[in-house]
Specification:
single chain; about 280 residues; alpha/beta; 6-stranded mixed beta sheet; globular
Length: about 280
């Protein structure tokens, strides 16, 4: 048995806010089920203190961290090596801190979202029309994997249309390769309905109103909020009131965490089992 299996390696999630995060429980359960020895913490980082927060974590012997709101766009700048997903999105949610002092950045958000929608929710994305609300780090991280999942159309709706247009521009080559249509609009300008509506804004966390009209929904549409728990409830209620199938982002959280865990530990945890357990356990 090597020494790495005898010590508890340190991992964390960094964000602001971060108290709501269920990541520590998820990774603790992954470790239990796979026989890995690790500690996983929440770290509240000052809005202007992300780089320092990472440096402090490295100094404490940290091995890896998940990055959440609002630091995903800042994370790639700290990395020595960025995955293709990070280069495409311009955002990272997973940092691996190497023994030689280098930092490797990846983005597992999109993989987690696609896995939860197609595998756990059983909703096909091949040929789907998708509305992606938001153009921040969360939206940037999932746009590429959604295109690679075979969707035929994605409308990005964002209050600052220029941010949505920038994401469309950075993903235009991939969209052309996948023969998919990409469009950037303001939320008020969105017309027609969609197979899948994904809320990638922080509106749920802030308690704001749903930023798109109910006309985007139709009976049977999947309305997906990347947030989970009480923060997602307003969006879910809105979706159900208009006949859509509502789903929160807990499955995405578990699936993206499983991808990060596999990157860090080289072991793939049983994500479906852990998601089922979390669904049965109140937060």
């Amino acid at each position: 048995m090597n020494s790495s299996t005898l010590t508890s390696d340190l991992y964390c999630v960094m964000g602001n806010p971060v108290a709501h995060s269920r990541s520590p429980a998820i990774h603790a359960r992954f470790a239990e089920l796979t026989g890995q020895h690790l500690r996983y913490e929440r770290r509240l980082i000052a809005l202007d203190g992300f780089a320092q927060g990472v440096r402090d974590f490295i100094a404490e012997g940290g091995r890896g961290c998940n990055i959440t709101v609002p630091f995903k766009f800042e994370a790639p700048a700290l990395a020595s090596v960025c995955s293709e997903r990070v280069r495409l999105a311009g955002a990272a949610n997973t940092l691996s801190l190497q023994p030689d002092g280098s930092i490797h950045a990846d983005n597992t958000d999109g993989l987690g979202l696609v896995a939860d929608i197609t595998r756990n929710a059983g909703v096909p994305l091949q040929g789907a029309r998708v509305l992606l609300v938001g153009a921040g780090g969360a939206a940037a991280g999932v746009l590429g994997p959604l295109l690679q999942a075979g969707v035929r159309h994605i409308t990005l709706a964002n209050r600052t249309v220029a941010k949505a247009e920038a994401l469309v521009a950075s993903h235009s080559a991939l969209a052309a390769l996948q023969k998919a249509e990409l469009l950037a609009l303001s939320p008020q300008a969105v017309e027609g309905d969609f197979d899948v509506i994904i809320n990638a804004t922080a509106s749920s966390l802030a308690g704001d109103a749903v930023p798109v009209p109910a006309s985007v929904l139709r009976p049977g549409s999947l309305a997906y909020d990347m947030m989970y728990g009480p923060a997602a409830q307003g969006f879910l209620d809105w979706a159900q009131a208009h006949g859509a199938v509502a789903r929160d982002g807990l499955g995405m959280l578990v699936e993206q965490a499983a991808e990060a865990f596999a990157i860090w530990r080289g072991v793939r945890p049983p994500s479906a089992q852990v998601l089922e357990e979390l669904r049965r356990t109140p937060h």
